[in-house]
Amino acid sequence: MKNKSAHVQTDVLKKIKPQKKERERLHHVINRVITSAQAAIARRTLRATVSLIGSAARDTWISGDRDIDVFIGFNVNTPREEMERFGLEIGKEIAVEGYDIQFAEHPYVKAQLDGFSIDIVPHYIIESTSKMLSAVDRTPFHQQFVTEHLGGKQDEVRLLKQFLKGAGIYGAELRRKGFSGYLCELLVIKYGSFTGALESARSWKVGTYITINTDREDTFGDPLVVIDPVDVNRNVAAAVSLESFSIFIDSARSFIENPCPQCFFPREVPPLDENALHNILKKRKTALFGVKFSLPNLVDDVAYPQLERASRGIQSTLRRHDFRELRGDIYYDRGDALLLFEMLAWELPAAKRHTGPSVDSKRHAKKFKDTYESSPTVLTGPFIEGGRYVVEIQRKFTSFPQLIKSEHQTMRSSEAIRQAMRWGFEILKDEELLYDETVGVFLARFFNRTLNNCDRTHRSQ
Ligand code: CTP
Ligand code: MG
């Protein structure tokens, strides 16, 4: 088995390790960026530093990746407002081919250059992480730690990153809630190799606590805790959800048992077309509903938690009104939001049972009878069953769209989403959901949801 695993890893590395030409291209762009950042600094007679960080600097990037992280370091005496302004100015000067402004702890420029996407992030130069003024001030310390401790194990990091990509759990963004690049580097430093990290992961339990160069034991309450070697107060794995954590354990076990190249590459699923979706729904006999609206100004990390809250709000409203959901999902693409619900029961008869107090409770009995004896919604009753009053009444909402159209302002949600829904929303059903091809891919993944292991059984829809 060991041999097979080594073969698979060699084959995968052939695909993911950048070769000479690609490296040269990256370094050419990096040199261009650094030179123009330094020139922009010199023109303003500033005393700021320029450094390359992240996977491009540590040589842990994967072939095909096109992102470069550049940090502009300012003296701690620089007022925050000035640091932000200069950071943006320098970023814009580098971005001769266009840019976006992104918002993290402070705004920064994401520049496009020669087919690459370059984050130009201003930060303060600090002596130690205990003097941190913003979260990004920690990053240069990560850079130093990884450079000093990773040795020659960059390929092991590449394998781990690609393996996590295959399982759909690479990236600490809130839409993914998975493992960051830095976390992969730390796991390789801790366990010595890609295989070492997997061997450890296969017996992880919820609450696994990993330290690298410290003894600190603290409560973080996360499924996985990896104490940041440059800052004991931070859990590097804070973003890893219980689901991502569990998927990693399962994938590690599967790979060790049956090493296969497919584990590293997410399965390609062709987008669903109308015909395919029609057939799937005919077989499942469910109905698919999407609540579609726009959130034009929200970046992914801000939009996702709100969309999750709104989705949970709709789910609990559905349950309260006797509708039954099988599963749901969230689609978000640059402002275009779609909350998806696959429904087991989406239309209900008008009659509904309502059980009242027990007959021996005098006060409640009177109240119940007073209310329902004269109510126009009552179809039958009040009558007594098992010692309690019962009425059969007309329900207010008999279909999914009717419920959402009426209740969208009172459901649990975020203010931004409530506002967006006041401006307008659509409820799409079944084939109406295929309004563009990326939604077709999203729906294909929704119905093909399975673990990316080779030992899974292939099913056809
Ligand atoms: N970083 C961090 N916390 C985050 C995200 C990023 O501290 N939540 C820091 C890390 O030190 C990381 C650097 O910012 O190395 C760059 O981030 P990113 O590009 O997301 O990660 P990379 O390590 O460059 O990995 P990748 O190969 O995915 O680009
Ligand atoms: Mg990066």
Notable characteristics:
single chain; 461 residues; alpha+beta; 5-stranded mixed β-sheet; 4-stranded antiparallel β-sheet; elongated; binds cytidine-5'-triphosphate; binds magnesium ion
How would you characterize this protein structure?
The protein has 461 residues and is α+β, with helices and mostly antiparallel strands. Helices cover 41% and strands 22% of the residues. The chain has 15 helices and 15 strands. Strands 1-2-5-4-3 form a five-stranded mixed sheet, with helices on both faces. A four-stranded antiparallel sheet has the order 10-11-9-15, with helices on both faces. The longest helix has 24 residues, at 20-43. Residues 457-461 have low confidence and may be disordered. Cytidine-5'-triphosphate binds at residues 53-55, 61, 65, 67, 69, 138-139, 142, 172, 180-182. Magnesium ion binds next to helix 3 and strand 2.
What is the topology?
Blueprint: H1 2-16, H2 20-43, E1 49-53, H3 54-58, E2 67-74, H4 80-94, E3 99-103, E4 107-113, E5 116-124, H5 139-149, H6 154-166, H7 181-191, H8 194-201, E6 208-210, E7 224-228, E8 231-235, H9 242-257, H10 274-284, E9 287-294, H11 300-320, E10 324-333, E11 336-345, E12 351-358, H12 362-373, E13 378-385, E14 388-394, H13 400-407, H14 415-423, E15 426-429, H15 437-447
Parallel strand pairs: 2-5, 6-7
Antiparallel strand pairs: 1-2, 3-4, 4-5, 7-8, 9-11, 9-15, 10-11, 12-14, 13-14
This protein binds cytidine-5'-triphosphate and magnesium ion.
